[in-house]
């Protein structure tokens, strides 16, 4: 049997490039250097520039895998976005603000190479889960030059939209029975200081402390039954942004726990795609 069809070549071909070094950082007690890498999904289409969404993996700032969600991130790519997943140093490698500096270095790299990857440098959004949701918030809200270090400093690390999933937004809101228990918490390890013993310093590196009316549009996604990062963390950031007069939506998901399957269903990704289409 033979069949013949006619195909209109309308949509671009998308390519996946992994392991692109976007920055280097000190390693092994400052004696060696490690590459920080990103994975990229981009269209082979030189006729136009595409908005870019930067993904930040979660893992309690203890572990991360920039390639773990590429299958889902391709959904965004096929909706007309360049998608980059950036690596950052974990808390056993470097304390805050190093992970945020790494994310911002990745954003600057993408702007510096926007022509190469058909990126519109004026339309970059950021999205991440849990610890990556925290870094998403901070990348969008923390504009002090101290967070921009390394190469490509002539380019901005600002983003035009942010979509954090179940983000820690106020470290003081996590309940521990005593300071000894708190000392081993992910947020204390990130800071390099015990959150319960240093509450003011903890608050000073939390997203709720960086809210201004200049914040970009936010879509906060949080499960109402989150047993790891309480739903109130997303609510608190939403309320602070709303109080400042910002463009913010809190999308709550019924019966959803932390990082469970609810977040990988079509309905949620439709919301994400619609948000970035509207705001970028």
From TrEMBL:
Residues 38-241 form the BD-FAE-like domain. It is an enzyme of class 3 (hydrolase). One of its GO terms (molecular function) is hydrolase activity. Keywords: Hydrolase. InterPro entries: AB_hydrolase_fold, BD-FAE-like_dom, GDXG_lipolytic_enzyme. Its EC number is 3.1.1.-. This is Acetyl esterase. It comes from Fusicatenibacter saccharivorans.
